[in-house]
Design a protein that fits this description.
This protein is mainly alpha-helical and 170 residues long. The protein has 7 helices and 3 strands; from the N terminus they run E-H-H-E-E-H-H-H-H-H. The chain has a 3-stranded antiparallel beta sheet with strand order 1-3-2. The longest helix has 20 residues.
Length: 170
């Protein structure tokens, strides 16, 4: 591969069995999660017709995934909002943003149903940027107005989210 400056190493890849082990769930549950394309990371390739995923994207998903039973409160609203954050299966950062927005927004709505979507997006962009170097978020600027969390947000999240007072730590 001498002289090929475009060559880059592949990310570590995982299949459904490894994902199930990483998440502590069955392969059936992984298939259910994959079917909810609003927030589960997309496969990066297919080997022998089976999807494989970037291990780092699954690890990011695991950090943000809330394992509460049933359909989360506000999921329909968040799914509608996600329509304003473009999907791009070739852009891992954009897919990570969609996943983190989904999880962050559901949490924010659970803590305070009046949380502006712009604050949830702001926090999601912060968190994605930490994980994806050089990340350039894309979203519908007519729909979203990203804004830093205000005092009300910080107060309501103080108990559950020690990083709500600033910083992008998870």
């Amino acid at each position: 591969m001498e002289g090929n400056t475009a060559w880059q190493p592949l990310p570590e890849l995982v299949d459904m069995t490894e994902i199930a082990s990483m998440l502590g769930v069955s392969k059936q549950r992984v298939r259910e999660l994959v079917g909810r394309d609003d927030y589960f990371p997309p496969p990066v390739a297919r080997l022998s017709g089976r999807p494989v995923y970037s291990k780092s994207s699954i690890e990011a998903f695991a950090r943000w995934w809330s394992r509460t039973p049933g359909r989360p409160v506000g999921q329909a609203q968040v799914s509608d909002e996600l329509a304003h954050i473009p999907k791009d299966t070739r852009d891992l950062g954009q897919q990570t943003l969609r996943m983190i927005y989904n999880i962050t927004r559901l949490h924010d709505l659970k803590v305070d149903p009046s949380t502006p979507r712009g604050q949830s997006l702001f926090r999601s962009i912060e968190r994605t940027a930490v994980q994806q170097a050089g990340f350039e978020p894309r979203y519908d600027a007519e729909f979203f107005e990203p804004e830093p969390p205000d005092d009300r947000y910080r107060q309501r999240h103080a108990r559950c989210c020690p990083d709500a007072n600033g910083g992008a730590a998870a």
